[in-house]
Amino acid sequence: MSTAKQRKRKEHRILFFALALVIVIPALVMILRLTSSSPLYPVGESYYNLHLVRFLGQNPSLATDPIQRSVYEPNPYHYLLTFLYTLLPVEAVSLFLPIVLGLACALLLFKLLKLIKVKPNYAAYSIVILSVTPVFIALSTGLYTAAFTMLLSLLATVLILDKKMLSQVFGALSLIILALTSLTGFILTIGIILFLSLALKKVKKTLRTLVFSLIISIIISIPLTLLTNYTPRILGFHSFAFRNVFSILNAEYGFSVFLLILFLIGFIVLWINDKDKVRKLFHLPVLLLVVLSFFNTVARVYASFIITFYCVVAIIYFYKRRWHLKIVRQGTLLLILCSLLFSSLNQINLLIDAQPDKDMLDALLFLRPAGSGDVLTLEENGFLVEFYSYQRVLLDSNSFLNQEYPQMKDDVQALFMVTRLNDAEPLLTKQDVRYILITPYMKEELWESREQGLWFLVKHSESFDKIYKEAEIEIWKYLGVPELEG
Amino acid sequence: MKKKKMKRKDKEDKKNKRNKKNIKNNHRKKAGKISREYIFIILLFCIVLGARLAMVLSDEGFDYNAYNTLRQAEHIKETGVPLFKDPLSYSGRTTTFPPLFYYVLALFSLVLPLTLVAKLIPSIGFASLVLVIYVIARYTTKNRIAAFIAAFFAGFVPIIYTTLDQASVYSLSLPLIFLLSYTFLRIEEKGFAMWSIILIVLLLLTHTSVFILLISFLVYFLILKLGRHKINIKEVEVTLFLLFLALWFNLLLYKKAFFLHGVTFIWQNIPAPLLSSYFMELSFIGVIYAVGVIPLLLGVYAVYHTLFKTRNKAASLYISFALISFMMLWLKLIPFTTGLLFLSMNLIILSASSTKLVLVNLSKTKKPGLSKIAIILIGILFILTTITPLISTLTLTTTKPPAQDLHALEWIKENTKETDVILGRAEEGFLITYAAERKNVADNNFMFIKNINQRYHDVNSLFTLRLKSEAIRLTSKYDIDYVLLSTKSMGEYGINTLFYAEEDCFEVVYDKDALIYEILRCEVE
User: Fold this and answer.
1) SS3 string of B463-482?
2) What CATH number belongs to B403-519?
3) How far is B457 from chain A (nearest CA, A)?
4) Where are the domains of chain B?
């Protein structure tokens, strides 16, 4: 009895430690960003969501993005954010919401692992691994739809796999909201629930709930599609590139190389040690998901959560097995620890150093009252300009949804490389460019820190006026187009 | 009774004495055999070393790439740390590399001149392969003669002589890699596990080629599994340790390079026009030329024999090592010469198994003396088939800078400012930084350089351009102060002078075989 109690206490201790990590790591990133006078969130989707919250608060039935003048597709996450921002203090929501979402995801993953009969200490250790996963750290330090998708997905899975009727109803509700948030996430979740219910031999019950939520989702999405700009789309697919997959190469939602190796070892250990041939097959879909995750961002987020369990299996296997060479055992375990530390520190470092910093913020705020006009800058800076400067940009990270995207991208690329005014003018006029925002990163990446391309042109042409230069950030105004009023 | 007892005692004493004598004699005989074995192999080592040194020391100078090694070693000698932040290369850049080889050279340069050390240590390193291969072949075949023949092959295989003037890092990494494979095979025995760990650490600090061995270990386990051999758990443990340590260390070391170049990091960011000369198409003739016909045939036969007949565990490791070297060569994932170095050494180790097979089978015939003839025949055939490739290797692979070019660089060192940037071909970059101690525009270390293709193209264009305005634009782009038109560059581009070099903008300041132009800052309308 006492040993059972002790075991339970130990499990609670591990879980407490894991949850502390889940809170501390993202909080650390945010605090370090704030102490360096940088805005709270790293560049990316967070600013798009915040930008929309501003307008959804004024007009909940928003149809077009007032700044970007692009079609707005309603998303439950934006409405949740709007609701929270109107209800609670802005600072509190900004600071705590990503952490709370991360914490909820971690707890739900723990619950799910226990539900599928994973030993409680393995489940708790999985949360420890999750807390140092690059994807999790990234998701818990900003306002990302993927984090909300993951939360809904885990919630739906846990509730639908539960025996109680009420839980199943709430599970179905979560699935429906998920369908409206991310169709890719919805499909993946249905697949996961089906697979888990098959493994737990609960197919009949869950199938009923799944079919019900599927029908309701379709019923809701038809009028939504007809009446609003909502378009059901399976997003997140991209061609395979190491840059998209590994966090070390600065992938947005990337795997840690070490965690992937640990996953493979854990997978092999489970495969070899499982004597039941049928049960063995249940590990195969996980491998398929990992393969799919090399080509899809949403699948990568899901895979990052799932592989934590396999990593734990691998680490515990290394820890518990009888090593013939003690020094190698200690060395290997130490290296695993170092590698986990390395991958999480690498991600933390990337997030702390990510734009916008104070200098960028100053430049963006300077652009706000400068008079309206389209801004030419890097695609990844698009959301920042829209949020802080209230200006329209040529390209942002959502522009790929537009039909003219390939042409616009070609034009922007051509503009960055152009050195003759005669070549630049038609493109500037065609794209209606008024301002050019040049950052140190652009100088380094596009022009190798040498005055060439558009940087050379703006410096040596009278058609451009430098209106801002601080800390190597330059804003140029194109004088070729007559000033617009209002 | 007493007499009888005495007699018996005497007899026993005599017997004991005889036994002791026999044991002593046996020991002496054994010692004689061991020492003879050692004498032969050390003699072979000395011959190989002597041959290498005779060739290396016969004339001064190094391969173009070796000047980077010299500079690194010199810097370590002076400051204790390698040149990770190089102010001269690419007019200032940061780079990372495992520095052990440079430290070894710097250490020996404390007692001998660096230029001598840079010839001596690599020669000793490559010659030591004879000893390493002998030890491995002896262990895998348990046959002294077969092992000695393999060591002989290793000493004179043509590909080894492509490295003569290079002060190559492989002179340290190759013996270390093969020693590691040897300690790995004997890991069950006392002390070998510790040696494996020490060698792993040394290898990681020397070169990234440890990954080839790591993949080979994985293939080796696969071969063992397929052959239903029992996998040694200690071998698995060491492999796991190596996997994590190698990954962790290299990710730490090359994090920025991964970040910058992505997966093209494997090809060392080599410019596209040069890529085909580093990562060449694998041809059968090329392999024969580099490895030699006899080691190749014997090695290939050993692969067949091991996989389908004997299933020798130790040989399986070298089969997987050879297989991985071959695959990487074929897929162009490894520089051609490096790949051939690995492939040839593995085939030579494997060839010992075939040689042993020939010798054992011949000794079982009615004329056991045939085995001696076979040894001589193998030796003669090896010499006959490698002599031509060896000579062509020795004559064709000399990529040393001519003395005239070195004089020109000496002039630059004495007559230009320390901050001046000198344009030379990328191949001459290391030489410019070492001999002239001036900034270059490009050299053969392409890692961490952005838009390398553009830069490489610009450097080459500056030797072949006809348009003055474009030349001025490029010289100002890279802040070039002097252009070195070496005799080698003249031959390379088929020119005697720069076409665009008109007196108003380009002044010839040195004209003795090689030419040096000073860039006069003039505006182009």
Assistant:
1) HHCCCHHHHHHHHHHCCCCE
2) 3.40.50.12610
3) 15
4) 27-58+96-396, 403-519
